[in-house]
Amino acid sequence: MFTFILRRLGIGLVVLFVASYLMYLLTAYSGDPLADLRTSTALNKGQLIEARSDLLDLGVPPYLRYFIWLGGVLKVFIGQFTLGVDPTGAQVTGQLGAAMTSTLQLVTLSEFLGLFIGVVIGITTALRQYSGYDYTVTFASFLFFSLPVFWLAAMLKQYVAIGFNDFLAEPAIPWPVIIVLSLISAVVWQGILGGSWAKRGLTAAVAFASALVVLWFLDASNWFTDPSLGPIVCAGIGVGIAFIVTALSTGIKDRRALYSSLVTVAIGMALYYPLQYVYVDASVWTILLLAVIAAGVGILVGWLFRGPDRWRSARTAAITAVSLGFIFFVDRAMGSWQVFATSSFVHGRPIATIGSSTPQLNGDLWISVLDSYSHLLLPTLCLVLVSLASYSRYSRASTLEVMNQDYIRTARAKGLTERTVVMRHAFRNSLIPVTTLLTLDIGALIGGAVITEHVFGWSGMGALFNIALDKVDVNSVMGFFLVTGATVIVFNLIADVLYSALDPRIRVS
Prior knowledge:
With 509 residues, the protein is mainly alpha-helical. Among the domains are: 2-95 and 460-493, no CATH class; 172-221, no CATH class. The chain has helices spanning 2-28, 35-38, 45-56, 62-74, 92-127, 132-146, 149-169, 175-193, 197-220, 230-249, 255-270, 272-279, 284-304, 310-334, 337-341, 365-403, 406-413, 418-430, 432-446, 450-455, 461-470, 474-502. Helix 16 packs across helix 18 and helix 21 runs antiparallel to helix 22 (474-502). It is globular, with a radius of gyration of 27 Å.
């Protein structure tokens, strides 16, 4: 394995070297970095041109100038790494770091949500092949995939941001809307769960009644102006998470794993009010420390419950604990919503349509979190909707192929439950094509979701690349290329290693 990794890294570095050399030449010959100065009317135009030429080494031919740039990159081994400067004399590394931070903030959440939702949809549609749910999801996925990104972004601005902000001015849900939304909920849930017509009818009735009660409560309690979950809702969600995680991880019949998860939820709810004092002056590191502690408590509880496999109980309880901690985090952030939405800088329109932050807005961690995610909402939703089709279709096709394999039929013939067959035998192998797609998408997205960033005014890698290309700023373009190229190589290597972990039949020698 170690030899394989070294060989792949060596090949990747050779490819990166050749590609970067070609990219440098193409960019350098694409225009004149002195064009703005040549048309200038400044009295010292000659000195400005000479100063920039010396700054960017323009007197050296591009096919040799590349090695000057490469020498700065290779100085990483002596702690003097540099990507050169832009035409204004600013270090490219500083601009690249700011752009990468902005892009990573945008694409990390969208990639995680797109992958998670896409895989869930793909597997469930494969298990319900040719059902109404399958056809509906397929139609919706391809609809969003085929829509132009700029048009979808504009629609999200109009109806999700502007429309919701207008709604918040007078947050009232009319009864006709409540009934229509409840009917939609009934149709969706009966289609997802399926079964006999009697089961479908019962599912539809429960979904209709639940949606009706929830929407009525949200409207009657004026929840949209001062949202919160509270301990009762958090406890209910925690119990639901415990059952869902146990069902997917070990199966409900594994009582020790289920009891471990439920005890973890009980411990979390006992700490609900004490944690509110910890949240007052919390920082990012405080939240991360709490997440680690939650995972540790879950592992300890699962380990103490013993059972035929302690690790299964510990794993299940730890996932439940961290998930409940996330619910607590959301609940506490909601507690600052009213302060955030009524701020003089937000003006009662909290869902932002442009930029990555609200200028001059100051506050504690929770105000910062709400501000960040109010700006992330629209571009993230745009990227998720566009990526759903590829992830869901790949995972659906892969699951269908895996479910027809001989070892799946053997597992069923042995009397294993459907959950065990799907989650322990089919799920891992069905992820191989999705892993390939994920690694390619990450490399592309690190390069910047150019159109999305432009529409939402997000100053990330895509914006950096466009501006640098317009100015024939070779060093900035090469910094962009180096980051995206290295990311593609690294994540393709990770994909090769993950293949052997997902499918035991694949071995790297």
